[in-house]
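Chapter review: from sequence to fold.
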Amino acid sequence: EQGGAAEFEAGQFMEIQVPGSDARRAYSLANNTNWNGDLEFFITLRPGGAFSTYLESALVGDRLNIRGPLGTCTLRENGLRPRWFIGGGTGLVPLLSMLRRMADWGEMLPARLYFGARYEDELFCQEEIRQIQEKLPQLQVKICLSRPGNHWMDYRGSVVDALRDDLGSLAALPDLYVCGSTRLVQGVTELALNQGLPDSCLQFERFLSA
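The token string follows.
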């Protein structure tokens, strides 16, 4: 980090080299491009993971070798077409970057965010989502739990279930931005194509454990 601007497209990721080895791990950027050189990541700590093990003893001021930006799952300019963002687990992170870009640029396109997890304690970034909603009042948010507790008040079911419910009553086709596991991407892709959405409406990024 040389103190220069952080220039990247919302939705892109960086590869971080694990200190002391040649291994690299890919992590999506959560923030928007900025002049301060800030790069924001949300990283799931995995027992025995190469980068997770490093983070256990990492210190403020450590230097990291970072390569990027990489990735092509970025926002498209398609006139006034609605944008629907679908994420599972850490697949939410690049979607946050896209939504923050929309908020910073004052884009008032119709937008929806579908964020899915199994259990309520797996949810994160709820405050960040609320802050984005304050800047994007048109943003509709649906939090989906496939294994909800008795007191869960939002959507009870998977993200794909929620999407199926909502795609059936559309007047205008949305662009879909899908980030998450291979299973999620496949499920949303099959559903979208069955509902008549063309390939051109789909942007996706698969997240693999490492």
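Two observations follow directly from the output. The two ends are 25 Å apart (CA to CA). The first helix runs from residue 50 to 55.
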